[in-house]
What does this fold into?
Amino acid sequence: MSIQSQIVAEFAITYSRFLDAEGHLTQELPESLNNPELLRKLYEYMVLNRTFDAKAIALQRTGKMGTYPSSGGQEAIGVGVGAAMKEGDVLVPYYRDHGAHLIRGGKIEEIYLLWGGDERGSDFEHLKQDFPVAVPIASQSLHAVGVAKAIQYRKQSRAVVTFIGDGGTSEGDFYEALNLAGVWKLPVLFIINNNFWAISVPLSEQTFCKTLAQKGIAAGVSGEQVDGNDVLAVNYATEQALKRIREGHGPHIIEALTYRMCDHTTADDARRYQPAEEVEVHKKEDPILRLRTYLVSQNLWDEEQEKALYARVKQKIEQAVHNYESIPDQPPTAIFDYLYATLPHDLIEQRDILLANLGAHHE
Amino acid sequence: MSEITLVEAVTQALAYELAHDENVIVFGEDVGANGGVFRATEGLQKKFGLDRVLDTPLAESMIVGMAVGMAAEGLKPVAEIQFLGFIYPAMDQIISHASRLRNRTRGRLSCPMVIRTPYGCGIHAPEHHSESTESMLAHIPGLRVVIPSSPTRAYGLLLAAMRDPDPVIFLEPTRIYRKIKQEVPDNGVALPLDRCFLLKEGTDVTLVSWGAMLTETMAAAQNLEAQNISCEVIDVATIKPLDIDSIIQSVEKTGRCVIIHEAAKTCGVGAEIAAQLAEKALMSLRAPIQRVTGFDTIVPLYKMEHLYLPSVQRVENAIHEVMAFE
It folds into this structure.
């Protein structure tokens, strides 16, 4: 006996890109990307991201910085997303989206400071409402919906952008955030950096989902995939999504497909689990190389500009390293000073014990 | 003025602050049309609108995580977790973020938020509705943990919690939600946080307690008056940070101390109070400190709850013991 039933809901996830791995256009560029200045800026910040990142690893290797999570090979995501955000928007990051911080006006030395073991790295000089790096996986998704709720309550046209990795999408907090964003139509954009590895666990062992973008569907949140190594695709999708979000159409997911061309952190060795031949394949997908090829093919970039850019980036990073290394230490009492707006009496006593011990130590 | 219960005092404080601070947003499971499962938010949604008093989807981590985001944007989220026994999914957000955001950002962002939650034995509810795990929360740097023991205290302390610039966990003892009635003027006057309250003056022994257990504690104190034992009773009220100075002051006078709490004994807040008295007031003590607490067992389902809960008799026995010590 056959049962009669009808399809009551249908869903689809699209995938888009503009530049293929060889730097060729796969389709005509939309209006917003027909902007050489924007394209050069995206290129410049991807180069800055990769160079500052290599320096961070070098600082760690020489004992000048602590454990650091690289964004190697994934620069197009942070940079492409950050470039589409407005000043009043709020970034709620995880820890592989440094490009967004930098292109939004965050300082390089802030990132060095944080991973160099200094809380002042999260006391951003310019991005006063942006969240600090969230180390526990997926917990930031909920902060993002809270910020979005505040924005909605005040009827502002700001938007929230939050990042998460592919592994993070297995966490309950991610699903809870999507559910709330959907039911309250919150102004929040979820960016999934799908680099196919959650430390050593490949995506195939993380989920049976065909896409991660579809994880929003159960919450009524639309989603799409883009080529995460095509900064143009990332930037355009973000710009369009933020426009819709600002118009009150509610949340959205962009799953950016990339590959982790680096260790999970400096405390990891990806050669233990990433197949060398797989890494070789993805090397050819490099986001920086492909945009440069395109820019050169359009006569928007030449060797001289390239040299000047690298000189500029080198100088910026040297300055940042200098600032990072020359900042005076925090006073010992700083471990107490920011726990509460006003230090409770019991902690004043403990702070005095610390100071008394330091005094004895110095004698 | 008519007398109100503790839960009505909570409602009164929420209403006062909703009316006087547009940044205050009250939310949680069933707090809207239903007015909360204990009616603590009764009528608030109707009075202040859907923007100010919100029912959330059923997800505790989400409730607290969202509050962190709202607080960072300058709102004053006042979240309800339906029972303390259901707060555990939100512990990550409390420990990892709410209590740390100010320190993590060196004061750039902060978390002025209140998490209200009913707790403790005495309401004949299923498992997970009866526990007192306040010491878990008191162990977390960056938090305040506040427990009212009467309608007056609930009103004043909740107002203070909502005006505090840092995260406050406000634990409401369900056993006395409707047990005591007091006149509580709706004057918006907050009580001080971080301070003990002296409930009864005495000279022979200091009884230290908080929340619902003050009922048994006060009953024991009154019973022993007849036997010429004069008990001083302290309501700790804010268990973190602890106002140990007020307790020491009392113990210096009486020379004896009995600590009474509903929570399990091991690593309970009573252990902290006893340790600090040993550190700072040992020479004032004329007898070893006694603790009368819940046992280190799972809180039984309600038929055997009375075996777990410290009784007036157990409190009296402990007092006799410290009085008899030579």
